[in-house]
Amino acid sequence: GRKLYIVRTSEGDAYLHADVPPVPIQIGKKMKLDPKDWPYLSWRWRVVVPPEGGDERYKEKNDSGAAIYVVFNRGWPKFRRHVIKYVWSSADLPKGEVLKGHYDPNMYVVVLRNARSPLNRWFSEKVNVFQDYKRIFRKDPPEIIGVALMTDADDTNSRAVADYDDIVFWKE
Question: Can you give the pTM of this predicted structure?
Answer without folding.
Answer: 0.94
